[in-house]
Design brief:
There is one protein chain. By secondary structure, the chain is α+β, with helices and mostly antiparallel strands. It folds into two domains: about 190 residues, D-amino Acid Aminotransferase, Chain A, domain 1 (2-Layer Sandwich), CATH 3.30.470.30; about 130 residues, OB fold (Dihydrolipoamide Acetyltransferase, E2P), CATH 2.40.50.140. Strands 3, 4, 5, 8, 9 and 10 form a six-stranded mixed beta sheet that branches. A hairpin with a 5-residue loop joins strand 14 and strand 15. The longest helix has 11 residues.
């Protein structure tokens, strides 16, 4: 079940608010005896990368359950997403070393099944109650996320938790059933951010083959067609040189991939007259998170700021549904007037 970016914490009755954890989304399947199976957003096993979680969850979970939550690493200054990404490493010796030095935790925020059966068609109010009962005696590395029905407290969390690495606040309807693949939760973040597909890049002018100038960003529409929405060039000179080797395995000549069918970068217009708008195509496998100030129609109005790679997210999930289509307040006032 997914969340849609919304501009503010919802008002009214029937909401439950939680901190938004900055980690890897994870479903834990536990039959009560076998080692738990840790599944990522892209349906892959996370067990190899977090062996301490497999062992720790098996020892502390009280019985059969399917739990929805987040794998996080808590550092001295709060949540440490960079330390989390370092776990996605090909060398087992490296993973084992990091597991000892920076152990991960699992924070649960929903229960999809328990020993009595499937709970996905059960309202969240009851799923949360069962989750709290299940976690009554659970010890680290498993945790239960805090939650509140008090909007003022959620606002307080939104302000105070940012310094600890939390993304913001998640709002869930207590009456909702679990709806996989649908954006029925609301997420309120400190920055306007988006997860985008990297569908191509442009060279630094005069440094072709030596330095990447910008990454070309894309989002999928409802038909699954990838459209160019903007670019990001917020890298140091060294990072732009490093990107050359990093992007090489993703090069593609197939026009049906990347921006081949949807809106493409570099289309000529009166604004690009005399400019080099050529670009290099990449197959749509890389996902990055960017921050931006304004979405003008289907594009970022200004250049976006690169925040991080999202190795835990499928490129197919980078769609326009991430955004709440809110009418600006000033425009609402005009059309609401008699």
């Amino acid at each position: 079940m997914l969340a849609k970016l919304t501009p503010e914490i919802p008002t009214g009755e029937g909401w439950l608010f939680e901190p938004k954890w900055d980690g890897f989304r994870c479903i834990v399947f536990f039959d009560g005896s076998s080692p738990p199976y840790l599944q990522s957003r892209d349906l892959k096993s996370l067990a190899r990368y977090f062996p301490e979680l497999v062992e720790g969850l098996a020892a502390t979970l009280p019985g059969p359950a399917v739990l929805d939550g987040e794998v996080v690493i808590m550092g001295p200054g709060g949540l440490d997403f960079d330390a989390l990404q370092q776990r996605i490493h090909p060398a087992d010796s490296r993973i084992q070393k990091l597991a000892r030095e920076t152990p991960a935790s699992f924070v649960a925020f929903d229960m999809l099944a328990d020993g009595r059966g499937d709970l996905r068609d059960t309202p969240f109010r009851e799923r949360r109650a069962r989750l709290e009962h299940y976690f009554a005696g659970v010890k680290p590395p498993a945790y239960l996320t805090p939650a509140t029905a008090d909007r003022q407290l959620a606002l307080d969390w939104f302000e105070r938790f940012e310094g600890a690495g939390f993304d913001g606040v998640i709002a869930k309807k207590l009456s909702d059933i679990y709806q996989p693949g649908k954006r029925v939760m609301a997420k309120i973040k400190h920055l306007r951010t988006a997860d985008c597909v990297v569908g191509g890049f442009r060279w630094n002018r005069g440094q072709e083959g030596i330095s990447v100038g910008s990454l070309l960003l894309g989002l999928y529409d409802d038909e699954g067609v990838l459209h160019h929405v903007g670019h990001t060039s917020s890298f140091s000179a060294e990072e732009k040189r490093d990107l050359v080797d990093f992007l090489t395995p993703y090069l593609s000549d197939d026009e049906s991939e990347s921006f081949g069918q949807g809106r493409t970068p570099g289309a000529p217009s009166r604004w690009t007259a005399g400019k080099d708008v050529s670009w290099v195509r990449l197959r749509p496998a890389l996902v990055c998170e960017v921050s931006f100030d304004y979405l003008q129609g289907p594009r970022f109005r200004h250049a976006a700021t690169f925040r991080r790679w999202r190795t835990d997210k499928r490129h197919q999930d980078c769609d326009f549904d991430q955004f709440e289509a809110a009418v600006p307040y000033e425009l609402q006032r005009v059309f609401e007037a008699d």
